[in-house]
Design a protein that fits this description.
The chain is of the alpha/beta class. It folds into 2 domains: about 220 residues, Glucose-6-phosphate isomerase like protein, domain 1 (Rossmann fold), CATH 3.40.50; about 180 residues, Glucose-6-phosphate isomerase like protein, domain 1 (Rossmann fold, 3-Layer(aba) Sandwich), CATH 3.40.50.10490. Helices cover about 45% and strands about 15% of the residues. The protein has 18 helices and 10 strands. Helix 2 packs across helix 16, helix 5 packs parallel to helix 10 and helix 7 packs across helix 8. It binds 5-phosphoarabinonic acid. The site of 5-phosphoarabinonic acid has 15 residues, from loops.
């Protein structure tokens, strides 16, 4: 069994012929990915990562075991592609109440914002605790993680001493360039390399995602097995009609060209919230360029049906929805009978809670289709490492194809630099003197 894509609830909005019309271009996009002849072809290392990473798995697991033994808390420092994939998988597989359970080590995150209160609270939490740090930055120069790393490295050295801290810090960065590489080499930290040809948002199946996921106690071999399986399912040997990545890329482009400019990734499983956050970065940074691209948004159902449901059902008709559905929960809760039935819920007695959830899912899908929102569905048989591995590779492969269908370079992110330039100018970073002067003039 594999994850399964269903697109028939889009057919009232685009015809099967309109989707099939993408066949030649999707085949061409696949060929460009595999042969490295398309835009951004120096960033295709993710394509074969499921196989290429296998030789490193034992070493990654050994490092994770060491950190797990020594630490009550492990802080993963990184932003964007350097943290979202790990957080997506760890949240999807962890107890919803992990903080209240005595299952150490806890995984926490830093460097994904510049919130002073966040960092103060994190530093307070770590005071007196045995903690470790995984510092992740491909460029090794990103401000948010660099700032957090300096703060937490200082704290760790003060608490544990410099020697002990050295064993508890792992850096994941470029093999030669960047401040983090220089620092790690000089301090003698254990490091892993993010290969040149793997962009941040495509790096979850590299040490970037695998080390934190292994530190959280999850099975990275299974994750990679699932991804490898999807690599073959979505490969060029599978024809367009049976290829889920090509079909998803085609149908979302057909919908986009019919006026559906926003894709809402929704789930009925609260643990998938960060899968949506990871997906938003993957598609937003890959496709949102040259004044085009589907806007990736997300919602958690049924929670957000009580806040965003009105707009989705009745607002401007620019949305289509992709439901990430989990066929079978990992646990069972049966709804009890009550003789008094004061809450009027005896019609649910004897049913599993998931049956109620599934009827909410089906009811929502039908209502939204009736309201003018095409629906796609990606179903995972269960929420586990293997199927998350499949899901990750499926979305990555489809993203590459979809970006080429849109005729953009899916593997760069030039727009991300604009805010950094202004921030550095405003903070008087050396080298930004001219920009500093210009921005201050503008603000007068
Ligand atoms: O996808 C990307 O390349 C970016 O979103 C990066 O992941 C993000 O900006 C973090 O960059 P770095 O890992 O260089 O610190």
């Amino acid at each position: 069994m594999d994850i399964k894509l269903t697109i028939d609830k889009a057919y009232g909005f685009v015809t099967p012929e309109a989707v099939s019309a993408y066949k030649a271009r999707a085949d061409k996009a696949q060929e460009m990915l595999v042969n490295g002849t398309g835009k951004g072809n120096d960033f295709l290392g993710w394509l074969r990562l499921p196989e290429d990473i296998r030789p490193q798995l034992k070493d990654i697991q050994a490092t994770a075991n060491l950190l797990r033994q020594e630490c009550e808390v492990i802080v993963c420092i990184g932003i964007g592609g350097s943290y979202l994939g790990a957080k997506a998988v760890i949240d999807a597989l962890s107890s919803s109440f992990a903080w209240l359970e005595d299952k150490k080590p806890y995984i926490v995150y830093a460097g994904q914002n510049i919130g002073e209160d966040y960092l103060y609270e994190l530093q307070s939490l770590l005071r007196g605790k045995r903690f470790g740090i995984i510092s992740i930055s491909k460029s090794g120069t990103t401000t948010e993680p660099a700032l957090a790393f300096r703060l937490l490295k200082t704290q760790l050295e003060e608490q544990q001493g410099k020697e002990a801290a050295r064993r508890l810090i792992v850096c994941i960065t470029d093999k030669a360039r960047g401040a983090l590489r220089t620092l790690a080499t000089q301090e003698g930290y254990k490091t892993y390399v993010i290969e040149d040809n793997i962009g941040g948002r495509f790096s979850v199946l590299s040490p970037v995602g695998l080390l934190p996921i292994a530190c959280a106690g999850f099975d990275i071999e299974q994750l990679i097995d699932g991804a490898a399986r999807m690599e073959s399912v979505c490969g060029t040997d599978t024809p367009f009609e049976a290829n889920p990545a090509a079909q998803y890329a085609a149908v979302r482009n057909a919908l986009y060209n019919s006026g559906k400019k926003v894709e809402l990734l929704v789930n009925f499983h609260p643990k998938l919230h960060y899968v949506s956050e990871w997906w938003k970065q993957l598609y937003g940074e890959s496709e949102g360029k040259e004044q085009k691209g589907i806007f990736p948004a997300s919602a958690d159902f049924t929670t957000d049906l009580h806040s965003m449901g009105q707009y989705i059902q009745d607002g401007e008709r620019l949305l289509f929805e992709t439901v990430v559905s989990v066929a079978e929960p990992n646990h069972q809760v049966d709804f009890p009978h009550n003789d008094a039935n004061l809450d009027g819920l005896n019609f649910l007695a004897g049913k599993r809670v998931d049956e109620v959830n599934k009827m909410a899912e089906l009811g929502t899908m039908l209502a939204h289709v009736d309201g003018g929102v095409p629906n796609l569905k990606v179903e995972l048989p269960k929420l586990n490492e293997y199927y998350l591995g499949e899901l990750i590779y499926f979305f990555e492969r489809a993203c590459g194809i979809s970006g080429y269908l849109l005729d953009v370079n899916p593997f760069n992110q030039p727009g991300v630099e604009a805010y950094k330039k202004n921030m550095f100018a405003l903070l008087d970073k050396p080298g930004y003197e001219a920009e500093s002067k210009a921005i201050r003039e503008r603000l007068k």
